[in-house]
Request: fold
Amino acid sequence: MPRHLLSAGDLTRESALHILDTTERIGQAIAGREVRKLPTLRGRTVVNLFYEDSTRTRLSFEAAAKRLSADVINFSAKGSSVSKGESLKDTAWTLQAIGADAIVCRHSSSGAPHQLSGWVDGHVINAGDGTHEHPTQALIDAFTVRKHLGDVEGKRIVIVGDVIHSRVARSNVLLLSTLGAQVTLVAPPTLLPKGIESWPVTVDYDFDRALAGVDAVMMLRVQRERMGDAFFPTTREYSRQYGLDDRRRALIANHGIVMHPGPMVRGMEISPSVADGPGSVIVEQVANGVIVRMAVLYLLLSART
Reply:
């Protein structure tokens, strides 16, 4: 394991598989327990440092740390000295002074967790930085694929939607390709980043063609809050060309799964009948998020450094 988890690119195939295998063992260890807790990180302190609003990720990391018996401190930029102008560096020194063993950082600026890792002695986990990366979400998605399809290697996976603003897409491309998956990105040209030709993916603008017989399809939310301009004509037009409905759902393999990192915009990128229908593992991704993050915290904090 690397000292920090800042990018999915930090993980080799071996270290990624080690995390996924550890996740499986942790899931087996707490399955059926009346009290789903392990004493592994008793006496350790985990700080959730969130500069952006979050529901799934923040709650997931908090639950993961508590189930490992760690002490958890939740820090929100709203209502803190950050609103008075305190810098990230000064906040880092405060966390260092209180003895944070691990800091889970979500920030609106790309690269903020990388900076933070240079200012503290504890381990830093990137919980999403700007439009850069979200490595634990990629691990969750890889674990979900492996759980349903047996392995990630050789699987055909299509990622659809707002790629240019998606940190989830970037981390998934890095991790899934490292694990041997064949990844295809589908989006209008305006929602693909510059330099996409250097990514280890295939790009297709025809959603129907890309879906034929694939093992998994991952839909992405259109992140309007990050858009200063119009990237497509209308919501209706986007949904018609790049939305996953029942007709398109029938194009993927019979064993294929439907994924979404959330939050979903039902009726735009995915229809309610597909989101809640057979083969949808969207709710399971949230449940898997807790044990994947338990594995990450355990491996980082129990490593000898």
